[in-house]
Amino acid sequence: MNDGLSKDGRELIRQAMASEEFATAQRLWDAYAEEVRAAILDGSATEGMMAEMSELVGWSRLVVQSFRAHAGDQVSRAHVGRVYDCGF
User: Fold this and answer.
1) Could you give the residue ranges of the DSSP H alpha helices within 1-88?
2) What long-range pairs does 21-29 form, CB within 8 A, spacing at least 24?
3) CA 77 to CA 88: how far, in whole Å?
4) What tens digit of pLDDT does each residue of 1-18 get?
5) What is the pLDDT of residues 40-70, one digit of tens each?
6) 1, 2, 29, 60: which has the fewest Cβ within 10 Å?
7) What radius of gyration, in Å, describes the C-alpha atoms of the chain?
8) CB-based contacts of 53: which residues, under 8 Å, 6+ apart?
């Protein structure tokens, strides 16, 4: 696995997720995961590569959880707004 490509891939994933471009992030994740899979299969994967992927998985999970929480708050606020606008 080319470390430069992987580093670029990880950065692109971070940028896409931070921009809430989740479809793009998914495509990038798929490509990155395939790189890691290939490295595992050909024996070139290192502990460092696996640690980097693990860190990115953890970071991505936090971003998604934050996004979901924020979206849930927006839905709740919209619901409350509709209730008060309807006179309930």
Assistant:
1) 3-18, 22-42, 47-85
2) 22/64, 25/60, 29/60
3) 15
4) 555 557 899 999 999 999
5) 999 999 999 999 999 999 999 999 998 877 6
6) 2
7) 19
8) 32, 36
